[in-house]
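Summary for the funding panel

The consortium committed to producing paired sequence-structure records for every protein in the target list. Below we show the first two records in order, beginning with the earlier of the two.
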Amino acid sequence: MSVVRRLFQIVAGIGATGFGCLIYVYLTLPDVRPLIRSNPTTTAFIRIRADEARAKGHVPRRVQRWVGYTHVSSDLKRAVLVAEDDAFFQHEGVDLAQLQESIEIDWARGRFTRGASTITQQLAKNLYLSPSKTPLRKLRELIIARRLEAELKKARILELYLNVIEWGDGVYGAEAAAQTYFHQPAATLAPEESALLAGAIINPRLLNPARPNARLLRRQQLILRRMGAVSPPPAALLDDVLPQSETTSSLN
């Protein structure tokens, strides 16, 4: 067999495998349309954390109280946008410039580690996926993020994100975080408190907004200096969704 023919077979095999992976990913993607008017009762991340706790012989802890978009401080919304996705209004789920930079850095390092996730990508990961950094998982995240942007308004994406993300051991969402760390509703958070909460998202199981270390305090100051440059999506662009007000302290 000639070298050219063998090379052609290898390329064709790689192409067929890649196409098969794309078909598998597409067929197994979740339907995000119910999120337009319904709030999720759980997430992939919450289930993963519960499994991790059970594996250690612990009772899974879950503190979460769903609040509507207008019941979250505008300061917290701005702080989160600054800390996690200052180009939220400029992209359709994926920040291509940041993604390219991330890929180039990963390629140079020889491993798939650096994040460049938008808020929409983080929401997709929290709702449906795992924390793993495999290329296939990342591909699913990118496609789900585009689907979320196609079906949901920006304000709804941010509302979902603020209610489901992890903000400490067993603490999920802005209301639970505000009550846990500052003993007040998310609606009344001041800029300083909001910046601490937003700064902790990068590593919520190590960074404690109630007892900030030097790293978190530096992030707080950086966020505070930039908060005036962003504005959250207006509530007028949000469809009515019935909030889930219950607080759960443990999972069975």
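The next record, for a separate protein in the list, is shown here:
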Amino acid sequence: MTSRLGWIAFNTFREAVRDRVLYNLIFFALIMVGAAVLFGQISIGIERIVLVNLGLTAVSIFGIIIAIFIGIGLVSKEIEKRTLYTVLSRPVRRWEFIVGKFLGLAGTLVVNTLFMALGFFAALLYVVHRFTSADASLLVALYFIVLEFFIITSLALLFSSFSSPILSAVLTFAFFVIGTFAGELRTFATLVPGITRWVSIGFSYLVPNFAALNVITPVAHGEAVAGRLIMLNTVYALLYAGTAICGAILIFERRNLK
């Protein structure tokens, strides 16, 4: 089983790396980091704050775009090319296919984040000329961004297991936007009466709470991230992603591929 998962994950990683969209997005992310350096130099006295905000936001946005646009095609592309039938004709179970695809894209996103993070830290060193102990919080912010990618990837796989690529992209992006403002949605729910209130509250807990994973602004101001928050966010992200993957497996197991 481990070898089968590794084989599927490696092939997914290789296909994602070969995708031109991937290189374009990484290129634009590095441009954003370069723009952050420019704005940082213009903003006298707040160079680090501007650079950290723009740089980490660029890493997050472009990584999410990669997760959505590659994630929605992990299943549909295999069906269109009819390579899925070749894979499943071997001793490979459907749940192994889904998990292997998730691991492959997750690994791709981790590697991409690593390269973008290197560019970000190089830009930061160029602007501030030295690192301090407060910069350790930047690693935590990047770690939370990776957790976001895991959740987005799992959602893209979940929606692509039963819908078209376009609809999967729309649903995944909608969950990301609503999850970013989950706190505001709960506040809105307290202001409306009746069934709308309960629907809003229920939906605010259904979507992932991306706001809790966004610590870019605090770390930009040199604030440390509590160890308890790191632990809670890790457990939350893994449970949410795991639940979404389980949902994708249940749907894909019952899907008629003929």
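Regarding this second record: The radius of gyration is 20 Å. The mean pLDDT is 81.
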